[in-house]
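Supplementary Methods, section 5.1.

A reviewer requested that the exact input to the structure prediction be made available. We therefore reproduce it here, unchanged from the version used in the analyses.
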Amino acid sequence: MSVSSNVLAPNYTGRCLCSSVKVEVVAEPKWVSHCHCPSCQKATSAAFATYVGFARGAVRFTAAEPKIFKSSPGVVRRFCTDCGSPISFEGEAWPGEIHLHASFLDQAKDIMPEGHTFVKNQLPWVKLDDALPRAETFPSDEE
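The structure derived from this sequence is encoded token-by-token as follows.
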């Protein structure tokens, strides 16, 4: 006798540096983008952050829950309390979405960024020649 299951196989999996925080995602990305805003630069200690946007309901943490940090009004960032790896970003401007850091995903090499946002804050020593679309702020701010 076979038993059917409503559990979907994940499209993507991920883990932090120490593997304490793990994730399964049962959807394709809504978008993939590099963000150059000052908040993302500080949160990652990098010139820019690369995010993969997913529907919040498609993302499930399967091991330790990441720590929540409210970095600014309406913004929640998650990170591993053991190794400090940044995990995700959620903002009121994107209801129902969670933005996972691309390199948190095991399949990061298969994810292709589609553009750059907040390039008005791009660090002057970052030289980009990828020909991706660029937005001075967030595209929704420019409409």
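The chain has two helices and ten strands. These observations are discussed further in the main text.
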